[in-house]
User: Fold this.
Amino acid sequence: MPEHAGSAPDTALIKAAHARADETVTQLLFAAGDGPHDLTCALSDPPAAAQAVVMVYRETGVFPLSADDIEMLMTLITYAFTRPETTNAGLLLSSPHRAGGRTIRGWGIHQGKVIPFTADQARTAYCTDPSTGDRLEPDPGTLFEAGFPIRPPSLPL
Assistant:
């Protein structure tokens, strides 16, 4: 079991996890391409659940985000990286598709790694309320695709 299991993470671990979260968000947003995107992190770590959504309009490779816009998202992703043995966390990226709806892709955060979801896993994550576990219906025109692979983080935890 990792040294930090069951205890509060130390400062070095938090810094490494935050750097890994930053690298992950940057990769996802750059790979998403231009246009409006929503990036959601959902976390269910009993007894609590949390969710953060950042709406980004990326134009010609730039996506301006204020510190307030991304603080909660980064906090949840950082937490997921520091508590890999107890955390159920996922990232969902919602992007426009040509038919006018949205395409949803997903990734799980498990044992300090970001693992692409299959299309079915993305659908399940998107259609499940993280607080209650209740099943939700997707909006009409929503497509689900597998998450694309992202580079492994450059910093170890």
